[in-house]
Amino acid sequence: MNIKRVMIVGTMVVIMSFGSTALSGSITSASPATKFSSTGIADKDKDDLLEALNQSSDEELYESLYEGKSLNDIASEQGGNIASVIQIQMAQLTQQLDERLRSGNITAEQYAAHKEELREIVEQSVFTSFG
């Protein structure tokens, strides 16, 4: 798998994990980066992710990611559980794939191919720093 694809897909995995509106901030914002929005995921999933990373808030998680830390770095530093993070992301992305298949946006063959490489992509994503 080439590194450019890993980086692109890894970034997509992180963004999808925090909601589909993660990049919807205003271009005129004075902030150097758009904060992640968690409106695309259920509160329980958001709480589970924060708990697995041992983070107290979305803002704390955002700041750690903004500093260039990987999800694994954050979990390791805070005594979190990276296996739970992987399970949460796998469940969320599997649900999204299921919805895409049901709605006809992807074929059964595409679904199977995406599902087959999902764990590898999620694992690469959580261990990759973007700093």
Sequence stretches where pLDDT stays below 50 over 5 or more residues: 18-41
Oligomeric organization of the protein chains: single chain
CA-based shape: elongated
The chain-level structural class is: mainly alpha
Radius of gyration: 15 Å
Number of domains: 1
Order of helices and strands: HHHHHH
Q: Which whole number gives the mean pLDDT?
A: 77
Enumerate how many helices there are, as a single number: 6
Largest sheet: none
Number of strands: 0
The share of residues in helices is 55-70%
Report the β-strand fraction as a percent range: under 5%
Note the gap between the termini.
21 Å
Give keywords.
single chain; about 130 residues; mainly alpha; about 65% helix; elongated; signal
